[in-house]
Every structure is written in C-alpha cells, then in structure tokens.
Amino acid sequence: MDLGISALNYVSGIKNNEFTxxxxxxxxxxxINEVDKNLHAFxxxxxxxxxxAKEIDAKIKxxxxxxxxxxxxxxxxxxxxxxxxKTTCASKVLENFIAPxxxxxxxxxxxxxxxxIGKTNLDEFAMGLSTEFSAYGPxxxxxNTDCVPGGSSGGSGVSVAANECIASLGSDTGGSIxxxxxxxxxxxxxxxxxxxxxxxxxxxANSIEQIGPMTKTVKDSAFLLNIISGIDPNDNTTLDNKxxxxxxxxxxxxxxKKIGVVTEMTNPDGLSTxxxxxxxxxxxxFEKLGANCEHVSLQMVPYTVAAYYTIxxxxxxxNLARYDNVRYGYEMDSSGxxxxxxxxxxxxxxxxxxxxxxxxxxxxxxxxxxxxxxxxALKVKSKLITEIKHVFEKFDFLISPTxxxxxFKFGEKINDPVSFMMVDMNTVTANxxxxxxxxVPYKITNGLPIGIQIMANHLEENxxxxxxYALEKTVDLPEVxx
Amino acid sequence: MTKIGLEIHCQLTKLESKLFCSCRADYRExxxxxxxxxxxxxxxxxxPLLNKSAVEKATLIAMALDCNTPSKIxxxxxxxxxxxxxxxxxxxxxxxxxxxxxGWEGKISVGDAKIRxxxxxxxxxxxxxxxxxxxxxxxxxxxxxxxxxxxxxEIVTEPDFENPHQVREFLIILSDLLENLNVSDPxxxxxxxxxxxxxxxxxxxVEIKNIGSFHDLEKAVHFEITRQESxxxxxxxxxxxxxxxxxxxKITVSARTKEEEAEYRxxxxxxxPWIRINDDTKNQLQVHxxxxxxxxxxxxxxxxxxTPQVAGILSSDRYFSELFENAKNETxxxxxxxxxxxxxxxxxxxxxxxxxxxxxxxxxxxxxxSIKSSKITRTSAKLALDEIIKNGKPLQQIIDSLxxxxxxxxxELTNVITQILKExxxxxEDAKQNPEIVNFLVGKVMQKTQGxxxxxxxxxxxxxxxxxx
Lengths: 482, 469
Description:
The complex is a heterodimer of chains A (about 475) and B (about 475).
Chain A: H1 7-15, H2 21-39, E1 42-45, H3 49-61, E2 73-77, H4 104-111, E3 115-120, H5 154-161, E4 167-172, H6 178-184, E5 187-190, E6 210-215, H7 218-228, E7 258-262, H8 273-288, E8 292-296, H9 301-319, H10 339-347, H11 352-363, H12 374-394, E9 397-401, H13 417-422, H14 428-433, E10 437-445, E11 448-456, H15 461-473
Parallel strand pairs in A: 2-3, 2-4, 7-8, 7-9
Antiparallel strand pairs in A: 1-3, 4-6, 5-6, 5-10, 9-11, 10-11
Chain B: E1 3-11, H1 52-64, E2 72-73, E3 76-79, E4 89-92, E5 103-110, E6 113-124, E7 128-131, E8 141-144, E9 151-157, H2 164-180, E10 192-199, E11 206-211, H3 214-233, E12 241-246, E13 251-254, E14 267-268, E15 275-276, H4 279-287, H5 293-304, H6 308-315, H7 318-327, H8 333-347, H9 351-356, H10 361-372, H11 378-391, H12 395-402, H13 410-423, H14 425-433, H15 437-448, H16 455-466
Parallel strand pairs in B: 11-12
Antiparallel strand pairs in B: 1-9, 1-10, 2-15, 3-4, 3-14, 5-6, 6-9, 7-8, 10-11, 12-13
Helix pairs in contact in B: 1-4, 2-3, 5-6, 6-8, 7-8, 7-10, 13-15, 13-16, 14-15, 15-16
C-alpha cells in the first residue's frame, strides 16, 4: 500500500477495494509512529481514528451513503478547534484548552467522512515561519531534517510531505500555508478572504487570515476546497460561491492567459540564485503552455512586510488579550496579585515571538503613535488594494517564487527578526488584499524544494487552480525519502 | 455658567438575544453565569454574529432623537483589560474614520430648552462585577458574565444642561421615549445608567461615574455643583478629574486611582463586515415608528376631548396608552381614559402588579359599557376591577359571582324602600318639607343594597312612596 497517494487516488483505491479504510488508517498511524518522533509534525493523534475507520468501512460494506472523503486521513493545524479535544495553538497558555466547538471546516470534512488523524504543530499562535516558535519544539523538514519546514503551518506541511496523512488544513495569515508548502514541496492554497469559514479558527489577525488546504496535488486542493468553501451562518465574513465546483474544469490550461511576473517579488537582490533560476524557468514553462508572461511592477510591495507586521501585531494584541488566565488557562495562585499584575504574570507564559508582537501591538495603534504606524500601514494596504485591482484588469495571474529563499537551517534566522520577516515578502500581498494565492512545488535544488506562487483576482480560485494544475503537470519531482 | 453633559447607557431589553450571539438579552432571571456561550465568553475560535434587529432598534432611537443616520456602519474594538470584559476588548462604535456610529448630531426638547445629542452608538455591555460584601476589605471579587454582550445604546449629549432639574426632566422624557419606541424597558434594574460631567463657570470639567439610578443622578449632579461652588468661593482650584458617586454617603468621591489618558487602541472589528442601512430600511423604520408621545397626547385631546392633563399622563406611559388604544371606541374614549387614570393606575402602580394583572382591553370596554347601560354602578365597577385584575374572568361572570348586578327588580326594591322608610321615620317627615332629603334616602337604599340598586329606579320609587313629585 502506497501511503504517498493523492486524495483522489485514495478515493479510487477505496472504491476499487484495493484497501480498506481501516488498513489505510492503521498504516498511516504506523507511519506516524515511525517517523514523527523525528519529524514532530503532530502535537496530538486522534485516538479514535481506527474506530472511525471501522465505522466508515461498515458503511461502505453495507452500501450505505458514504461521504466524498471515504475515511481519508486529514491532519488539522492545532489552531483549528475540534470539540472535546485540545487546541493548544502550540502555546503553553492554551496547554489545557479543550474547545467547546468544532470549526466549520472540520464539520464539513467530517460530514464527508474524512478522518481527522491528528493536530499539527505550528509557530505559537501561528506567529512565525519556521515552527521554531512552537512551545512544544519545532517540526523538521523531511527533505533535510537540519532545515526548518516553514511555517507557521509547518506541522501540516511535514505531515503531508512525509506521507503521514493524505492532506492537511492549515491557516494563512501572511504565508503560513504557502511558505511550508513551498519548503516541504507540497501544494498549499490560501483562498480569497471570506471563501472559507474561520469559525473555530483561533484568531491571530482576523482581518486577513484564511484556512486552506495543504495537499499532495493541485487537484486535491480543488477537491478539498469544494468541501470546505462557501457561506457559513457562523461567520459573518463568509462569501457565497454558489457551490462552485473547482475540480470539474481544472484541465482548461493557461493558453492565451496573461501572466504578470511581479518585479518587486523577483528582485535578484532579495532572491537566492537558485530560486531566481527556478522562477525564470517557470516563466518559460508558462510561455510554452501558451500563456503570455510580462513583468509588472507593484510599487507598494516593498512596504508590505512593514505594513503586514504593523496590522497583524495590532490585531494580535487585541485577539490575544483574552488570554489573561481568568476564565481558562493553567493553575496559578492569584492571591496577592492586583488584577493587572496578575495578567502580566499570567501572560509571561507566552513565548518570545508572541510577546514581541504583543508589545508591538500595544505600541503601533496607540493614541500617540497610530498616525505614524498603524494608520500608515492601513494606507499601504488600501493603496496596494488599488494597485492589485488595476493589475488584474490587465492580467489573469501574477506569479513569483513563493519564498525568496530555500529552507534554512534551524537557528539560522531566529536571532535576526527583520531578515526573518523579509522571508514573508512575496506572500503577504495576497493576505493584505484578500486575493487567492497558491504555492506549487516546482524544483528540488540541492536536495531542497522550491515552490512557485500564483495569485489571481478575488474569487478566481477556479482559474487559479487551472493555472496551478497546468504548471504542476510539467514537473516531475522526486519523492522525499524518510 | 454651569454646564452639565450626560452619557446614557440604555440596554435594548426588548430584543430577544444579545448583540453578537443567541443568549438572552434580558439576563435578569438567570442564575449567575448561565446565560453565556462561547461567543459572549470570547472562547478562542468563536466569532461574533451581528444581531440585525439591534441595528434597527438603535437606528430607530437615533431617528427619534433627530439624529443624522449613516448609510453604513462599522464596529470597532475598544481594547482594555477589566475582569468583566471576557475578550478584554469591547465591540463598540467610533466616529474617528468617517461617521460610522448609528447616529450623530441630534436634539431633543426639554421644556423650553433644546438639548443637543452629540452621538449615539451601539455596543455590547460587559459582565457584572460583584464585590462580595461590598466592603472596603472584601475578600472576593465575583464576576457574572450573564450581562456580557447585552445590546447597549450609548447616548452622549452636549453639555447643554444648566441645572439638575433639567437633567431630571430630560431623563424622564428620554426613558418615556425609549419605552414608547418599544426598544427598552427603562424600569428594569440596570437597564438605564448614566455618567455625568459637570463644570461651573471658570472651573474644569469633572466626570461623575458609577451612578446607580436616575434618582441618584440628579442628587449627584446637585452635590457636585454645590461642591464645586464652595471650592470656587474659597478660591480653591477645581481640578479635572473623575469622581465616583458613593451611594451610601450620597456624595461624590475622587476616584482613588488617577485615571490615565485613555489608551484604547481602537481598530476596526473585522469579524463584522460593514453594514449598509439603505434608505428603504430607514423609510420602513420611519413608517413603522411608534407615534411620539407628544403627538399621541395631542390626538387624545383633539380627537377624544380628553383633558390635556389626563392625555399627558396616558400618552407618556406605554402600558396604559396601549390599554387605552385597545379599549377605546368612538363613544367610550373619555370614560376609558378616566377609568384608567383614576382607578386602574392606582391599582397597577408597580411593575409586579402590571405583570401579574389579568386585565385586558375587552374587560375595560365591557366595564364602561355596563356602567353606561346601568347594568352596574360605578361602585360595583371598582369591585369588579379588583376581581378582573386578580383572575381575568369575563366581566359577566364576575358580576354574577359577586352579585354585582343592579337591583332593578321593582318588587325587591320596594321591599328595601319600605324597610328604610320605617327605619328613617324622621327623614321621611323632613323629606316632605325638603325634597333634597330624598337623596339621603337614596343613599340609605344604596347602602342597604351594597351599591347595587339602580339609582334612577330607586329615586322614582321613593318619590312615589313619599307621594312627592
């Protein structure tokens, strides 16, 4: 049995009686048992997965209606709630937090008979791009375990790349799906803001983040998006996509499409040579496929990282303020504390990156400084939105490398916050403007992956997935060996 | 010149649910921390879901207070740490980035004065902190989150009041108005709360917080003016500060911790998209807006010939004006109004009595009808009212069971009269000289029949017996 198969091949495997759900789930659990001690993709494993598998097998056997997922194992980033189980956000602060509600995305997948195989590691509260800020230790890149897997959805990326599960759900605030997808050589899609419900996602920067699929193939992302997208009465920001089917016409190709290569995202100064070469190669590939590639400038891009950190810190400062250890949290004797000093003490359990952003978030929107920082960041955001709107009048897609560099070694960047932040350069634009973006595995150079990012206009996931699928078909990448 | 401004918080108690979740808006019946859910408790992963009726009710208030109303609104987060605030931010509104609150620049007449409304905003109420024992050295601070998320409308006035009396008048007018709009029940404990700011000629502005009731608000303002004036007389500087109303001692005291310049790090609440309030909606609200108290009063006077005093009392009370509207018809309006103001208001003078009362408009119109057709006397009607309020049975049933019907049987009345004439021999003699004495005898008959005798028939029969014309 090949644990490395795609979601669609899993479904046909079950339908053709090549294996049972229980067999596949058991093998997946064995695989996790075997490799995860080293890779540390998971924070928690679902201990009733086998029982779930047996139930779905029974349904299949007795010819009952079975959901589209046929028991496929899907991992879930540990900032997405599943009722009755822990959601830690990889933080000590939520070490014992048991969610009273199930996120809409998990509800939708469960009702299609997917099995949530476990909760995956992340940077604490999704703040970071390497999983080095997880309070429970980092995940490791299966391509080279000395390297980071990317983040913040690093555990999700690793779990899919190392064949510990079929697919995963990540969340993307500034690249947190696409960055680990690129670093782990899998597909990662950040949908249009509002296409997928955030109900049950622990908020970090709620004005720009989205849940999205992380999969082995582009088609798998379309398959999962079909299930998890659409309007949700539990999330006022969700959009109606009229039950669009992203899979049915995915083979349309890119012939005649206009593709803009974002100058500011392919600037040789910020890019590693290997990444630049891969990007130029991808441009040629698209031209061979009949698309028209042209450089286009987005002048706001150099300011986006600063704007992104200003806005997300402001929102994080507000979203994380509730972790005061008053209504839930961990044991801490409150006697002798005045309320505010109790909160300060309680919050000292946050890790360094969260604390950094909380301090920043207390400062940039404050009365004396908002004009210089927060309001300026909002201005960059609104100018960027205007620019993007303009660009999509001419182009169908924008492309860039997903990340300007390849996976780096543990500890290499953690002490240099600004250069760390610049790794987000190419991904934050999609979040600040709300447009969809996908990372497609394109090359393995020096034994490490490089991904190409494609962006499209609002709610253009359908054509975005067509372009991604066209590119994916041209590459033949080696399997990771672990 | 003395300047007083008010900040009034009014809960929209007439709504079914809280501002962002389906918990009950009226939390008063609940045991502590049982009217809560992941949303109003700010549990990670929960999202606020806007109660659209709250937006409509708040718009209604803004329109009734002559405010400008925007074509779209947004919500903001006001960030601060406090134990009663589950998320450690309050979802509220702000007028910093364009006019995004539900109303601004309104006005309301208070006597001859015009009080300007600066702005009206829709927001969520925090929970409630209970200091056990409420002493200085209380050991426990308890928090009840049942109230957290209750829809609240904040009404901020310009400093247009000149004296405590005006403040009081304004509050009466405002609470009548809110009750009349059917958005709130201002009589409920904690449903309406107010802070005041007070300054006298040449002095700084002093804020008074923590005022529990409207009654105390007038007192607090009065106290504060007196305090500031006595400082001024002795040429002591009046410093800008926040003072708390000490409910026990009925004085204002300087807030112990110096309140720093507010730092709320306002920013847009992205979980709630901008809400459009289009002209259609506004027109609909205008069309269905309950008639204002003043126009109601005018109508009662001009259409039904009710005295302005009675009309004023009736129109300013939603409960009784509704009873009146439902019971009145072309012919009985005046009698209905009088019976409500003279009899029923006295019987139903508390909320509890109103809530448990079984009296409805049908009872009332039947009662008036029965008096008019001499089926019962006014005296009996009062007895019947008491019964109806208690058990709500149909009027006829109550008349029968209490035997309140007129004694209009000639034979029965004649027997009573014969008896009275015997007992009151002196009066009978006098009556022959002075016909006015007949009324005394009528009274005696009434007494004997416990007010049930038909007065006209009694008079006729008496005159006949006495052979006077």
